[in-house]
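Give me the fold.
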Amino acid sequence: MPAAAMRTPPKAIRNSMRRMMVLRTIMPIIIMMMTTIAMTSIAITIIIMAIPMLMTTSKTPLAEHRSGMKQAEAAALYRLMTWLSPAFPVGAFSYSSGIEWAVEAGDIVDAASLRDWLASMLADGAGFCDGVLLCHAHRAASSHDEAALRDTAELASAFVPSRERQLETSTQGRAFIEIARTAWNCEGLDAMISCCDGAIVYPVAVGLVSAAHAIPLAPTMHAFLHALASNWISAGARLVPLGQTDSQRVLALLEPIVVATGRRALDASLDDLGSATFRADLAGMRHETQYTRLFRS
């Protein structure tokens, strides 16, 4: 075979070589395009799967909001927190309910003895009695039973065991009523107040105003007893004295007493009124003639 013929490949071979060169040129481009398409497909799949998850996440706060308190419940909580806060100006900080004399006499000397004293006052003394009176005032006002409301207010005023306790509860009741009429007046409140026809002591005032604002009885009861216990602890902390942490420990230890007292008061009749805290009643009476005093009761 001539040498020239050997150097020149046949036409078929030349075409095959051209195709191979073209494939070598475009193959990387094809691979790149396929990779891009695959990655795009994966990204689209991820987005499609993520959209329901994102929608669920965005709906969660809305769902929690819808399952939370209703507007009336939120308003009731707001008012109770305001009315029974230490910042509400009824002058509760200036009364100790006889605790000042108990500290001077040595009955209360530390956090443990303060807790025991207050547990008795809550369960068997002024706490339970005030809770019962609040309960019946609230029910009478809610049912527009003027006679029952008047009788409850009169009984509550007469039930106080000492002159200074009378001053304490009647002064706070009057302040509570006046502030409620000025800042938190509502339809029917004035009529309820006028039908009492006399002094309105503190627990009756709280029950009456809460009923006028259609605030349920149970949360009103527990908020009132919590405020009562907190004020007593505040007085004891200043008199013993106690630190803030010890004061909070006492309040935490009194939680089951407050809850149980509130439940008993909700189920009690006016015939169940009565106390067995003789030492606390004597402390209130002795405080009237105590030589040096920081508190008014």
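Residues 3-66 form one domain.
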